[in-house]
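User: quick one
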Amino acid sequence: MTKHHGIGASMKRREDQRFLTGAGRYTDDINRPGQAYVHFLRSDVAHGRIKLLDVAAASTIPGVLSIFTAEDFADAGGLPTAWQVTNRDGSAQQEPKHPILAEGMVRHIGEAIVAVVAETLEIAQDASEAIELEIEELPAVLDMKDALADGAPKVHEDLTSNLCFDWGFLEDNKAAVDAAFESAHHVTTLDLVNNRCVANPMEPRCAVAEFDAGTDEYTLFTTSQNPHVIRLLMGAFVLNIPETKLRIVAPDVGGAFGSKIYHYGEEAFVTRASKVLGRPVKWTSTRSEAFVTDAQGRDHVTTIQLALDADGMFQAFRTETYANLGAYLRLFATVTPTYLHGPAAGGPYRTPLAYVHVKGVFTNTVPVDAYRGAGRPEGSYQLERLVDKAAREMGIDPVEIRRKNFIKPDEFPYQTPLAVQYDSGNYHAILDRLLEISDHSGLDARKAESASKGKLRGFGCATWVECSGLAPSQLIGALGARAGLYESATVRVNPTGGISVFTGTHAHGQGHETAFAQIVADKLGIDADTVEIVHGDTSKVPFGMGTYGSRSGSVGGAAIARATDKVIEKAKKFAAHLVEAAEADVELKDGHFTVAGTDKSVAWGDVALAAYVPHNYPAETLEPGLEETAFFDPVNFVYPSGAYGCEVEVDPETGKVMVVSFAAADDFGVVINPMIVEGQQHGGVVQGIGQAVLENAVYDDSGQLLSASFMDYALPRAKDLPSLVVDHSVFTECTHNPLGVKGCGEAGAIGAPPAVVNAVLDALAAHGVTEIDMPLTPSRVWQAIQDAKPAAAAE
Amino acid sequence: MFNWERDMPTVSMTVNGVAVSGEIEGRTLLVDFLREGLRLTGTHVGCDTSQCGACVVHMNGSSVKACTVFAAEAEGAEIRTIEGMANSDGSLGVIQAAFRDNHGLQCGFCTPGMVMSAAELLARNNNPTEAEVREWLEGNLCRCTGYHNIVKSILAAAAVMRGEAQAAE
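Assistant: Done. Structure below.
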């Protein structure tokens, strides 16, 4: 029974009961007594100067409580960014202020200008239409290279240019890398665009705040991945509220994928307004607002080059990337395309020399920040596309060129040229596993079958390593992080034996309430059903940094394991008294404390009770109570890896791409709950397929977002997808966290896009198509086939 | 100028077998009546263009997007929501149990709409192919699961309904 619910068991999720019966409690399900509603009047132009703003008429509308503009937040700070990136010349990144409400200028469509608070949402919406607002439209800065040209209009007048940072990694490598290219046998060069995506969790953002005038305490219910981080940022940097007076609750959250990490102005607004008005204030995003206010993802324009020797061995690679940051810096805006991008950009290969060069650029578009994978999908995409291109140019099989360049299993720990040390992995074994589970040997027959239907079938492969489990605090501190990224956990054993675990991570689909209980149950040898997981409330959980960067298991789970170890150590002292044995002789096994070589035994529940009933042990030397806290700060990142294989069918008449099969062999280290992990693989892979085939945030020349609804932004639907084959059976343990886990949340989004695009290029090879950018829409694919025709005919 | 204290018509309907009525505005959507008026918050709002399907409920036996139906249009109707899908003893219904057993949900936000859509599909056809299930889910978006386990859940529920399989536990 106990083993059934320990580490490695596919325990059914306890969360599901409430989600399946309509009893989940998401932020928008929360209404507070006397609640008022806010509607934000937002900019409908991408760049402009506010010439006239008059709210007088709107203020007189019955039911309007108050109308706020930037002047009402003159004393508030801007929304902060978490990372200081240092330029190649040693200077600091440029950081414009990001106000809660626009201060005279608007810099992207959707930027909030005015906030109308009213008795009902409908009144607030109606009243906002009575506001007199005139904006002088200015030229919008959209293309990144244009934005950096001399004399380009500036997104922020007070900055020297639209260049936020100019970062080289590692700058010390550059000369050696350039020299390797000079003497290379072969150089492969690839230009590509990593398309901008919108995270689109199904639950739109929402925030409800209330203020208790009796205690001066604020409570903010919000759709967040990291409530303590919101408390810290909003309290210390924006509204100047001490942590002791600010409670943040992130209840059930309906998906996030990075977009709910950041502290958004709407959260600060409702918090401040709840005190000003003396009433709770609620804001719920519409999907239309989400498209223009949630942080967007990716958007890199890159040139990447690979130097190879005559045998196809990689000698060096270098990149030059323009990373679109949008109009303002959100929390992880500058770390995402730099330190979350560069360190793993070398993938699973032994390439001895590497240099990653990224320029972060401001444009008049919605701010860009971490989206599932955050910097690592961009790295994996550019490298895996490049490797395929190099293989084609040199006449080497794409699978073989990867295999021959892999870091070998006996070379771990492996110091890369990009500052990090991979602790463990077996890239050859997961590639072999992929070829097995994808029935690679049957590919030719399937190609022939597709051809008989007039379809072009292609196979694409991607092998990758991510650098996740954020993050070793001392290392990231040296690199410019303004915070630590440890995690905390408290394990409280209650008198009757039930256990409450308080974790600083937050679940928004990942099933922590189940998987984390399995960790504790496994260590104690008790049933997981007696372990409750508490998260998402700063008034209950001591501290935490939240959930992102595939960190919950490897950092948060590790903290839970450590705190549980401490509990066991103390429980043994109580047990020793109960069985009258030396503490050193007491062992915990299957939920019982036993004394080796005797029949003495005491059950876990009796020890828990004894901890709170100090009748027969010396309370002056053994404190009553059984509750321990641990902070776990990893000494290194974790390095999950994967080998992905995709097969597509392309209709050459229409350009339509169908992903007909997808297989993923991942090394996640030890897996706590295989069912949940496989669900993460599915979801990540489909987000990657979505980026590769369907999704694109498209701005027109004036900075309007054309794909701003689910009618225009193509989220994957069930019929767009095949059944997926996922596997995690071949693994190597992480060597530096107590559970041996590596993290699985971002994997699919990192590995899938290059596998899909490589498959399409394989399918189109016979037509002479060698390059194409995501998303692979029918029109793009069809056009690529047409464009390649003259060249193919000439050959 | 409009008068916000306008006349508030009353609407009456049956929701999950219970007769209910309440005051609405002409523009009140069924989903808002359910969520705000009746506090049945299991039905969710994920978009404003009738694309995502998080708000799917049954109206007189057919699945509808409750964000696209005015509350007034549901006058006299039989409405069934996710809160009415469990068995009378409170245990999960066949489709709900299949979603749990096959990990057909992650964040849970699209789940009520998925279950309600699946219920109509399986009422019409208790032996759908995988392709038919995928086609049927055209109007329901999920960002977490990649649909893989949702499809698996619905096929598993169909097998139980046909008597070919038993629900786990």
